[in-house]
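Quick note —
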Amino acid sequence: MTRRSALSAILLLAAAPGRAWAHDGHAHRVLGTITARDEKHLELKTPTGETLSIAMNEKTSLLRGKRKADAAELKVGIRVVVDTGNGEAPLVAREVQLGVPAAQK
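Predicted structure written out below.
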């Protein structure tokens, strides 16, 4: 019975939603392609096809490689990695890392 209980517990944990694993203490990052943007938010399409709306504020830093980026560089079609803090809704970007063009790598 102990073996069966252990297997059941493992299967239950594996089936738990990913958000249940979110916790403070490390950055939660979202990878995606910008599908829409304005001054206060980005919409991203993730590699899994999910569309996320992520707010930006005056504390959001924009980077391209190791240099500071300008908000004008956030264009539809650009791939980004967004640090969303603890990953809980509403998602607010702490840092947006823009993809580095091939010539700069």
